[in-house]
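Please fill in the sequence for the structure shown.

STRUCTURE ENCODING:
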């Protein structure tokens, strides 16, 4: 749930950077900090699940190379 919360904060920061309207009482968000929070939490989850993220990334890239994209 923490990952989803941080993704929401990143989305809010992205809206601000894109010039989209925010509520007057919204706290200023920093996209860079929120992106780092997402990565920290995601890497921690991968560690807990014993996922070799580098290998998973490389394997998935090989699969994607064989796919037909529309």
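FILLED IN BY: designer on duty
SEQUENCE:
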């Amino acid at each position: 749930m923490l990952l989803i919360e941080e993704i929401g904060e990143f989305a809010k920061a992205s809206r601000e950077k894109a010039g989209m309207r925010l509520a007057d009482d919204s706290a200023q968000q920093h996209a860079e900090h929120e992106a780092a929070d997402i990565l920290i939490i995601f890497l921690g989850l991968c560690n807990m699940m014993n996922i070799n993220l580098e290998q998973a990334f490389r394997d998935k890239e090989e699969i994607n190379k064989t796919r037909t994209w529309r």
